[in-house]
Amino acid sequence: MSSKEGRCPVRKRLLFAMALAVGALGAGPALAHHGTAGYDAAKTVTLAGTVTKYTWANPHAVVYLDAKDDTGSVRHWAVELAAPLLMERVGWTKSSMKPGDHIVAEAHPAKNGAPVGIGGTATFVLKFVVNGTALPQQ
Question: Which of 24, 20, 23, 2 minimizes the C-alpha distance to 12?
């Protein structure tokens, strides 16, 4: 066996290990994006207001709504949901709501106090009532 043949498996292992390391470093931000760490899962807020926009697109469906806070001021909320494919499995569609609809929605609010929340993931969907009709929760 020549010396080149002896080094080849080591070189392949080294290249494989380097590729894994680079892949793992690049996966961190992508995995962090899909986490729910920024939301307070121990707290649920109920928002009542008007849908201003409903985005049915990947990576997440999003409901934008105007809802009054405790002081009576209107706040512009964004409530993130799961990907449309996952929401379809629950029974939602791209026409489940539209701008102008009255909505009562539950969400786990952002920990930093921003008017954003999460109302659904691959494992849960909170309560959403649109024009008096409850949407499926699973």
Answer: 20
Same-domain pairing of 122 and 56: yes
Write the CA distances from 10 to 1, 2, 16, 116, 118, integer angstroms.
15, 14, 10, 50, 47
How far apart are alpha carbons 93 and 9 in whole angstroms? 52
Range of the domain at 25: 1-33
Q: Confirm whether pTM is higher than 0.85.
A: no
Residue 40 DSSP code: -
24 — alpha (psi -120 to 50), left (phi > 0) or beta? alpha
Percent of the chain, pLDDT > 90?
Answer: 71
Q: How is residue 133 annotated by DSSP?
A: E
